[in-house]
Amino acid sequence: MKRYPTRYKTQARKRHRTLITSAGFDIDRIEADDATENLRLSLWSWQHQIEHISQRHGNAVTPTPEQTTGPNGENHLATVTAIHSQPQNERATRPPAERVKKLLPGIATEAFTHRYTDPDTGERKTRTEHRINAVDPNTRVCDGCFLAQKCPEYSPGDSCVYEMPIKVKTKEQYIALLDSLITMQSMRVFSMRMSEEVEGGYADPNLSSEMDRLAKYVKLKADIEEAGFTFSMKMDSRGQGGAGEVGLISRLFGQRSDGPPALSPAGTVSAQDALGQMGIMDAEIVEDPAPRE
Question: Which among 14, 47, 7 has a CA at the least distance from the CA of 28?
Fold first, then answer.
């Protein structure tokens, strides 16, 4: 037996529709708030709850009838017999059998080769990492599904025939998912709009909330497509005697930011040395195949 708040009444009935129907109750009358049918369901639930408690805790304590005894007094003729317990060998608790560990349904791992630079030797190395992915658990059984009475692919004793092969890893896949959500949400909004008109045109607050959710999806997609990248760096170098120390930035761009570069066009500092002096150990250098004029 499960108890739900009043605001979750409709949701609970849909969730346990298959159980209620298999127990012999009329789900249409229950959803219509029929007092007699709901009372029958309530009594049936309480009966199973009592049986469940009895199975877990055993039979209830039954009081024995009181026996009439005489006045209290010591019986000197009775003898006391001592009962000696027999020694028994204590057995050690047997450890549980080891079972093969398995991943939870809906979780899978994927091997990924990661390239990195050893900070001690500077050598390029690789290591294999395992990343977690969400997959279709495929554990839903038709007999326990709340859509068993309406599903076109219902088959007694079988698992669900539908699958959801969804992968969202790249920006393109993420935008495609947003497009699907926007399409589905738009269909819901227009369907609710039609229902609103059929009911007489009264403003439905549920429709307003779904329209706000659709607007959030559209704005989220627009923000992702217009997202940019900005990088700025500010460095201040001070040496002894008030003179600026000649460092990497000075050698690259000169002592003054508005002056000419200190390096020749060919460059006196290699890109790899410049990255090393800046503390960047792992970077990919892309060279221009044709020099610019």
Answer: 14
- Spatial separation of the C-alpha atoms in residues 283 and 117, rounded to whole Å: 9
pLDDT in tens, 201-228: 888 888 899 999 999 999 998 888 887 6
**CB count in 10 Å sphere of residue 17:** 19
Cα–Cα distance list, 170 to 131, 176, 179, 182 (Å): 15, 10, 14, 18
Whole-number average pLDDT of the chain:
75
SS3 content of the chain, % helix, strand, coil (to 5): 40, 10, 55
Which is nearest to 104 in space by CA: 135, 64, 126? 135
Tokens, residue 159: 């698992």
Which value, to the nearest 10 degrees, does the dihedral of the CA atoms of residues 198, 202, 203, 205 take? -80
Q: How far is CA 238 from CA 244, 246, 247, 255, 278, in A?
A: 5, 9, 10, 12, 17
